[in-house]
Write a structure and sequence with these properties.
The protein is built from 3 helices and no strands. The chain has helices at 6-23, 82-85, 90-93. By secondary structure, it is mainly alpha-helical.
Length: 148
Amino acid sequence: MKKSVWAPTVLMCLATISLQTIAGDVYSLRGSKELNTNSDIPKMKKWQPDRDPITRDYLQQPPLIPHKTEGYAINLRNNKCLNCHSWSNYKESGATKISLTHFKNRAGNELSNVAPRRYFCTQCHVPQVSAKPIVKNTFRPLHSLVTE
């Protein structure tokens, strides 16, 4: 018995066309610029002024940085964040201390120093600038779950 290849091919084509229709007008963050042309130089944003800790919007959200970090060195030899946020300095500086989770390696073993995978703070924690959202965001936190 011969199997027809046409039915699956037609269905695949229809699915592709319908997905393209659903996507509608999708625009690049580059705007209408072609990929082989240079994009515009982005405008520099202003850092938000230093302030109290920023409320988290969901469970397990890494805290946002409520101050400038311009010029902070975070490399293999130096981590400026630890000057204020380490367990030995947080009280004197008035900063939030590093979470205990930052002292565990991938296997869950507790370390005496910040774990290498948690050392580069700005992988998860980000400072805030005066920028408009790139895309519309309708996210609303579920306040009953948000904890500080």
